[in-house]
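new request in #modeling-help
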Amino acid sequence: MNQAGTGAHMWITSQPWRLWGHQIMAIVRQELKHNFFTRRGTWIYLLAFGPVVVFAIDAIQTPGCAPCSLDEDTSLFAATFQLYYMRFGIFFGVMGIFAWLFRGQVVQRTLHYAFLAPLRRELLVIGKFLAGALMAIVLFGAGVLLSFSLVYWHFAARGYDYVFHGPGLHQLAVYLGVTALACIGYGAIFLTLTIIFKNPIIPGIAMLGWETFSGIFPAMLQRLSVSFYLKHLSPVSAPSDGILALLTVVTEPVAVWAAVLGLLLLAAAALALACARIRTLEISYSSEQ
Amino acid sequence: MSGQAQNRIVFENVSKFYGEVLGVNRVNLLLSAGVTSLVGPNGSGKTTLMNLMTGLIRPTNGAISVLGIAPSEPEKLARVVGYCTQFDSFPPSVTGREFIQDWLRLHGFNHQETSRLAEDALARVELTEAAGRKIAGYSKGMRQRIRLAQAISHHPTVLILDEPLNGLDPKARAASMALFEALGKEGMHVVISSHILHEVDRISDEVVLISSGYIVAEGKIPDVRTEVKEHPMQILVRCSQPGMLASRVFAQNHVVEAKLQNDGRGILIRTTNADEFYSLLNRLIVEDGMQIETVAPADDDVNSVYQYLIGSDGERI
Amino acid sequence: MAVYKRTYRRYDGPLTPQWSRFLVLTRYSLYTLFDSRPFTAFVVLSAIPLLLSGVLIYLSHSPMARTLLQLPGPIIKIDPKFFRQVLLNQGWLAFLMTAWAGPGLVAPDLANQALPLYLSRPFSRAEYVLGKMGVLFLLLSAITWLPVLLLFGLQAGLEAGWFKENYWIMGSIFLAGMLWISVISLLSLAISAWVRWRMVASAFLFGIFFVGAAFANMINGILNTSWGHLLNLGHLIFGVIWPKLFRVAVDAAGANPHARRPHLPPGMVALAPLPIPLWQACMVVVVACAVCLLLLNRRLRAREVVRG
């Protein structure tokens, strides 16, 4: 036991952590530079900020919102968050961002430059994942933040009270946290899919089906979906009727900490798989596009 | 790992199959410092060999080591190897300078060192002035040179160049050749694949001839030529009495053909034993007082060897 | 004086007629698609719901078979609604097939700059688009309106007098099928010409229908309206146009359980948002198709723009 501990300690101290840190930062910087603000990403910005526009129209239509009810709009925002952002907006947006990180470079025939750098390929996965997660969290986090702000700004003083003296700020923090977790969870899975499959869209769409219908499967299988964990974390429930209930209703309750930890473990497992796969990935541009 | 392997690029029984398609088969090679050229027709496996030694693809069988490092360890290998691939593609919207600097940052170099190395490399390929422009606006030759600059920017020990002369104008071509030759003389391993045979011949220390995934010959061109027994050597003799020389050489079994030159001052001999022919020539000079202007092998250049071993249609002989 | 050997002779054999030249592209694209075993399997599997529908029609007219299978009474009523439902199921399969096959028809040509090769032949851009769309029209017709018409024929053959009362359904099946095929084919070609990457084009196609539906519901919920459905092509075609074609009730305007209730003075009753009128649905579909054609016209050109 002691020997194993000493071995692990020696391994840890002998690794070039500082160099790895520099290399990861270099990858993150390059990915952000090439992918954050591009014309190609316009549709992702639309996904992230579409609801902001709709809430803004609503705010303009009913200034002051005297007859509106805070509870009703809180529920409306919860539904928008759970049914739009979590299920479609973030899902497709993250799919777009993360699929581009590796497959985009394959299509552009530039992945070999990264493979020819003196860099552990696992670091490439981690760097790209961090860059993708950062992009997704900033975009969708900003979308959620602005939408939330517009909902309560709409109520003027009542809204201010609700946010700063009521449960609003806590709800906002949870929404942003869930957004970040959704980006991390879906991002890790999509990144792995893009490394394993040449065309990750078909498994991606299969995953959309799985994420939607996993609620009807046994508890063990439900734990293999990102939405299982996210459902538990929403600060305001948005019960739905009919088929929409599949997207919101929690059938197997778990504690919040377990949901967060479970999702992070799921993401870590997906990334570990991606790291293992990338060691053997070969450059082959001929069959793409 | 033996000391010899520490300084060489070694292929041990390497095969690569793309599904059912053969890339290269049972390749055994030892490449030393200096300029080595990989010569072969399109699809013969040159790029596959280069991709194998840089770890972009993995062998189906066998083992490769580059100065004692396995290509499966890119973190070590890429510090000593620079590879200028055939892919004429670049990250979008980058300038020549950013392209090199971004790549150097992946090595872990700090800002100052990155800038210094990038400027050195740009100067070496004479692209300093154009380095601030976006690569998308570069000519093909400039794109070729910026990739070369990237490959040499971190001062590698092994430089691998896949068709590095494609798209270069004659001036840039000559400058690049001079650069490769200089790098080879500095002790670097320079591995070049090219179709420009006479140029490769001029600067190569060794050639590797490859056809249909098989290595058909390796070594110095004249040595390889001597080994090609199926094709008699051609020797051009410029002399005052070619007719007399012809009559004398026809008495020898090893001479299969003698062709008089149109100007009447030379003769092209085809012989299966060059050493015997040279001995005969010496005797004729000494005993008969024949005046010889020049004696030169006519087909020990890489072109001829390529033709004999690979054939014009790329078929292995 | 120079002497040249004239060994070159231009081709003077028979040529494919100009009017059917686009079918060369269709034929070769179909060969390529059917080289993929999973794709062939998918095409075969698409016939299963049709076979089941055929069995249902047969059972509903065969008391003997029902007795043998111990099924109580008529299983299903074979009416316009039935044919609409069968076509709807096949329509979604056709959508999946389009997402799979459609982007691969154009995107690789553009990405590999193959278009100048096509267009340097006596082959126009319109013929190129026709040739590529022909692939989708043939494939999708084969799993949508064509087999549903066969089911119609089966039903007409099994029930005397039924055809006389319901012959118009044939036109509905054909029009509904062709409308759906035209929209998804154009969308898939236009998107793949725009993004030039097959994988992203497939994702986009899914996004347009799924995210479009989610976005439409969100708009309807927040603004308490049904105008959001104008962004939901699936609803406009399946929920508004098809019901009219099959003479069945128009789908509800998409009741969103989270929709904000309108705040009215006491005593007044809120009306549900009105469904989208047919002409508006048609207009949106026509505009979507026109945008696709514009995109194709803009992107399918024998030149490559490089920005440096």
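bot summary: Residues 171 and 269 of chain A are 29 Å apart (CA to CA).
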